């Protein structure tokens, strides 16, 4: 076994343990909030969205810390420690009243929950790029192995999700929350130990300064020289000394930003005036980010759809869950169907969809990143429509509908994530400048954060707008009194509008390799 195969297996095992802990919390959070902390469904949905938003905005902080001072390896270690402390605190909150009082349980749980969110979130923007750092993209032998690493990296994530959605949820239902959160906490400890044990085989890259600061310097310099006339020839713009692996060619888009690279003083003084004169490469790095922003914005609404998944177990608990005489299906365990769908669909996509798409499009990639994202968004509309249809049927039948009817909505949402969510991460990685891949990875995760916050706003608005005149509203504490089906139809409608906007943005987007 060569070094790269050994690293891939080791790193994938670490990721699997870390994701098992993360999904062990995600899949059961709404259940814990409603059954242990006695929150209503609408309040629990809002709190879930706020927590998940924190999980996915924290990667931006992790990327800044890694790029500017600590590097990815030390950033992962630092925030892994916070992750472990948070998970341990959450496990403590699930102990019996003899250990922790009911009056302090909410505060202890919230502290652990948000420490865990910060730790896990800051790791997210570093783990994937750190793994990619171990492969030389310029080496013909290592390049295909780098692509294979990403496939196995996401596969490991879904293995962790599958185990959490089945075994961990079963532990929580049958043995309580101390063990139900304690097992994921133990997994975080094992994940960190595994990561440390592999230190001898890693390649390390030194931090090269904050890319956020570099981008801000371009904006400030361009605004300061807003009255400067741009030269007709881009070759006269200041390009500074060569930086290894970072020089980018000038493009004609977003010409205003080019003013940051117009030398109105002696170029040799540029190093001492980074807020007045920037290099063409700096300008082009920012242009690459601006170019991706419309696509990035549509990802926010798409992620708002994904975070409705915790409402599925709420729906499932009100359905007929018993199989035979002795076994009742835990409503949250159907999350394992979501994970299993992704485990099946990831290799199926590579083995069947990509070759078929190649024959149809003539493209080596099969589907472009944007085509893949668009297909996933369309499936998210179908998933919400399926959930709404099942809920309407459940209400009409007074709950006498089998929980098996939820399987299609979980499968559709899983297929949507395989296409759109992975497509988004691939898009931000491939279209980012080489020096900004950590930052762009964080921006990709940030769509999940903002989508969660957007979901919280939508839930709040819907709750206030529909709970009038004594009506409990669409998202009622007892969903038999509400109309969760109407809420799902609303989300499907918003997702349909977002799909149309995305198609318009995708048609106008110019891929990095196609820009003149």
TrEMBL record:
<feature type="transmembrane region" description="Helical">
    <location>
        <begin position="450"/>
        <end position="467"/>
    </location>
</feature>
<feature type="transmembrane region" description="Helical">
    <location>
        <begin position="76"/>
        <end position="95"/>
    </location>
</feature>
<feature type="transmembrane region" description="Helical">
    <location>
        <begin position="324"/>
        <end position="349"/>
    </location>
</feature>
<dbReference type="GO" id="GO:0016020">
    <property type="term" value="C:membrane"/>
</dbReference>
<comment type="similarity">
    <text>Belongs to the major facilitator superfamily. Proton-dependent oligopeptide transporter (POT/PTR) (TC 2.A.17) family.</text>
</comment>
<dbReference type="InterPro" id="IPR036259">
    <property type="entry name" value="MFS_trans_sf"/>
</dbReference>
<feature type="transmembrane region" description="Helical">
    <location>
        <begin position="177"/>
        <end position="198"/>
    </location>
</feature>
<feature type="transmembrane region" description="Helical">
    <location>
        <begin position="410"/>
        <end position="429"/>
    </location>
</feature>
<feature type="transmembrane region" description="Helical">
    <location>
        <begin position="152"/>
        <end position="171"/>
    </location>
</feature>
<keyword id="KW-0812">Transmembrane</keyword>
<dbReference type="Pfam" id="PF00854">
    <property type="entry name" value="PTR2"/>
</dbReference>
<protein>
    <recommendedName>
        <fullName>Major facilitator superfamily (MFS) profile domain-containing protein</fullName>
    </recommendedName>
</protein>
<feature type="transmembrane region" description="Helical">
    <location>
        <begin position="487"/>
        <end position="506"/>
    </location>
</feature>
<keyword id="KW-1133">Transmembrane helix</keyword>
<dbReference type="InterPro" id="IPR000109">
    <property type="entry name" value="POT_fam"/>
</dbReference>
<feature type="transmembrane region" description="Helical">
    <location>
        <begin position="293"/>
        <end position="312"/>
    </location>
</feature>
<dbReference type="GO" id="GO:0022857">
    <property type="term" value="F:transmembrane transporter activity"/>
</dbReference>
<feature type="transmembrane region" description="Helical">
    <location>
        <begin position="107"/>
        <end position="131"/>
    </location>
</feature>
<keyword id="KW-0472">Membrane</keyword>
<feature type="transmembrane region" description="Helical">
    <location>
        <begin position="370"/>
        <end position="390"/>
    </location>
</feature>
